[in-house]
């Protein structure tokens, strides 16, 4: 019975990883095509739907961690996925004024390259039981460049959105109301920016540690 559930788990995770991999491939192709034909201002419109779908699918990774379907710690997965969902839905989807900025291009390319490598890595691991050494190296090395470019783009787009958030008062709840509760999306966004200050170096250091472990095993093999 344990063997049966293990097989089902591997099949499910393989399908999940390859499905999301396909979504990110689509995002990258659409982004490059839009950049080549129309420039950075056209990138968001070209990738909007597949970007939202692929990024939102990552919520399942939090669930996978919570039910221990995978070994990835939720403490590392949740902040990264949460910040990306905030940018995807809370910034780009909610404030169209940000969509034509060149940082959208660097964001989409950084995210898609990262995820294409990551999902293919885990997809091969689940489907075949191993990953080629070159893919393992890419998985634990490309973040050295792509994480800073992705984080810079995220922070930049949140900052660019701040005036529009403040002016629109979208998602704000003012008192008095029957719940006796108030919420200001502008200050919440500032708080998110503040979290990036300690959070980004911590996450980068964590990934450097993971890289050291993974590549040391590769050398030993």
Summarize the biggest pleated sheet: none
Q: What's the helix-strand series?
A: HHHHHHHH
What are the segments in which pLDDT stays under 50 over at least 5 consecutive residues? none
Percent of residues in helical segments?
A: over 70%
Helix tally equals 8
Radius of gyration: 19 Å
Mean pLDDT: 93
Shape: globular
Q: Based on helices, strands and strand pairing, what is the structural class? A: mainly alpha
Q: Please provide the count of β strands.
A: 0
Distance between the termini: 32 Å
- Share of β-strand residues: under 5%
Pfam families: PTPLA
Transmembrane segments: 12-32, 102-122, 143-165, 185-209
Main location: endoplasmic reticulum
Pathway: Lipid metabolism; fatty acid biosynthesis
What does this entry look like structurally?
There is one protein chain. The protein has 221 residues and is mostly helical. The protein contains eight helices and no strands.
Secondary structure layout:
Elements (H helix, E strand, L loop, with lengths): L1 H36 L5 H14 L2 H8 L7 H20 L8 H27 L4 H7 L3 H26 L16 H36 L1
Features:
membrane, very-long-chain (3R)-3-hydroxyacyl-CoA dehydratase activity, fatty acid metabolism, transmembrane
Summarize the structure.
This protein is mostly helical and 221 residues long. It contains eight helices and no strands.
